[in-house]
Design brief:
By secondary structure, the chain is α/β, with parallel strands linked by helices. 23% of the residues lie in helices and 33% in strands. It has helices at 20-32, 41-47, 60-63, 73-90, 118-127, 153-159, 223-226, 306-314; strands spanning 7-11, 36-40, 54-55, 66-71, 99-103, 131-143, 176-178, 181-186, 193-199, 202-209, 211-215, 238-244, 254-257, 262-266, 270-274, 278-282, 287-300. The strands form two sheets. Strands 1, 2, 3, 4, 5, 6, 7, 9, 10, 14 and 17 form an eleven-stranded mixed β-sheet that branches. The chain has a six-stranded antiparallel β-sheet with strand order 13-12-11-8-15-16, with no helix packed on it. Strand 4 (66-71), helix 4 (73-90) and strand 5 form a beta-alpha-beta unit. The chain is globular, with a radius of gyration of 20 Å. Residues 147-152 and 162-167 have low confidence and may be disordered.
Amino acid sequence: MNPPIHKIALIFRPQSPELSSACKALIACFQRHGIEVCALESSVRALGLDRALACTPQELSSRAQALVSLGGDGTLISAVRQSIVGGITSGSAANKLPVLGINMGRLGFLTAITPEQLDSFIPLLLSGEYALDSHHLLQGKLEFGSVESSSADCDELESSTRESKKTNPPASSAPFYVLNEILITKKDIAGMIKITASINNEHFHTYRADGLIIATPTGSSAYNISAGGSLVHPQCRVILLTPVCAHSLTQRPMIVSNNFCLQFSVEEDSVIMLDGQERIDFRKGDTLIVQGSFPIQLIQHPKRSYFAVLEEKFGLGG
């Protein structure tokens, strides 16, 4: 049995004023069942909601027991990012909030229910009879101006969110996290990029392609499958490497353990996209370091079947 949920925080796109009436209806539904509701200040202002609902990102972990995303899979990914921020701010991985997705988009592969199903789903939240699905994230960082990285890089990446280093580390970005994928892609429309890839400091491949997808099993059903990568069940602990429009037939998709430390460099300035939502410049001489990270919990209906969802959403086997 899971902990009962009596307090939730709503996450939705504040640039979608058309959601205002739907949000108010869902808030009323939660409150009718005695569940406390809050939402980020920016969203409250944008949609004209009750100001008493407003909270800051830093307050999420204290004012809510779960995040509820209103929208499609992209909004759910944004909610996962908010959960990570709340967990890091609280200083404990255990405080990362589970996420419930209410599908108001198109595909809704990761979301649990539709707005029409909320009234019957809330009793499961109150009783703790909902299901929790673990989805492991990928963690990455950029080391600036470092063509070769040491074997300690992944250890440094893992510990950087827990404590500051006593020695002077190479200049690097803050760690970042993705639920679906990290995409290395070219800056310009024309041409290709050359990506040098290593595993645990051993060179294993040089990609010449329009880009490279570094995906989680959760993200295997997103951009990865469109580029010809495999579908992988979310419970698998692996990393998928899928070239985008490879310039040679020898450039094939590959699946490796997420215990490995992956390192990537490029020969010309490129771009890194995080879950299709955040863009980071990736310059020649920088090193991108990627490894498996902690899990995030998605709230689902206890009778949900991953394979049934594949069949429904993708027509798999049809």
